[in-house]
Amino acid sequence: MKLAWGVEIAGTGLGIPDRVVTNDDLAQRLDTSDDWIVQRTGIRERRLGRPDETTLPLATKASWAALADAGLTPQDIDLIICGTITPEHQLPATACELQAALGCRWVPAFDIAAACCGFVWSMTTAAQYIHTGMADRALVVGAEYLTSITDMEERSMAILFGDGAGAAILRRSDDPQRGVLAARMGADGARGRLIWVPAGGAAEPATTRTVNERLHYMRMSGREVYKFAVTQMHEIIQETASEAGVTVADIALVVPHQSNLRIIESACKRAGVPPERVVVNIDRYGNTSAASVAIALHEARQAGRIRPGQLLMLVAFGAGLTWGSLLMRV
Ligand code: ACO
Predict the structure, then answer these.
(1) What total of structural domains would you count in the chain?
(2) Which of 51, 52, 235, 292 is surrounded by the most beta carbons within 10 Å?
């Protein structure tokens, strides 16, 4: 087994809105039901942010918590990466706004727009910066205010998504036993329009017409994405393990993107990961895109589900289409 990059997770933190919205709450104004949502997705409730609980405030809260958990101050951080598809503003990057909000030094700060892979890709990128010596202590965040791009009048979309943020501090480790064993990143841009936001970018800037036609909300071909996810996710898990020279049975905990309980269960079963080794919290948060793996990772650490020396895998897929994994000995 080879160790690719010597890094460790020094701390994690959470930033979630207070407001809980249950399936029954949604069923009061949409033609849907708790039964339908639970059976098709596994979601029971989600957190939806108020106007003052958007991407940046949630990311800031998660970052302070991760810093405290790691016993570090903002001054110790020398790289900030934020995975998000709902940046606080189109310009500048949310990571730059986060740097200012936390009072960090003038360190590199940038966003990664890889949808639900945002946190996994950000962790992989940060680990590489640390490996090459360009950084020692990175703040890695997954943060979303999906409320801003979700059509709350469209029942097939409104039920799926939630808001939130999770953060991790990735630090150089000289322990030869600790670090990243293997990572995968992939994308298929030809299938980009399976999940996309038609307007608001350079191709179709905001006009009264685009707003009236609701073109600033996500559009998704749910069934196509579902098929992609169940076929792709188990392969990524198996390929990442074999690239690292371990078996799936060696992995103590898998933290998958929380998109749909049926996708998680089917992918993990096909990959040979037993349910007790899979982190699931979609019932309480829904799909929070880039925040999802970050939130689940934090909750797993808090619950003592990851012990030193064990193998941990983060795995995600999402719009782009994108996919990614990171296998670490923690
Ligand atoms: N309540 C009740 N009925 C509904 C609802 C609802 N909320 N939403 C849709 N339906 C109806 C549809 O209208 C349809 O009715 P019809 O048969 O009369 O036409 C029926 O239910 C079936 O609809 P489908 O869309 O085919 O339902 P499906 O079983 O595929 O479940 C779902 C939909 C949950 C979205 C599923 O396709 C899925 O999870 N896809 C993957 C989504 C995903 O993982 N995206 C990740 C990326 S997101 C990102 O990157 C930001």
Answers:
(1) 2
(2) 292
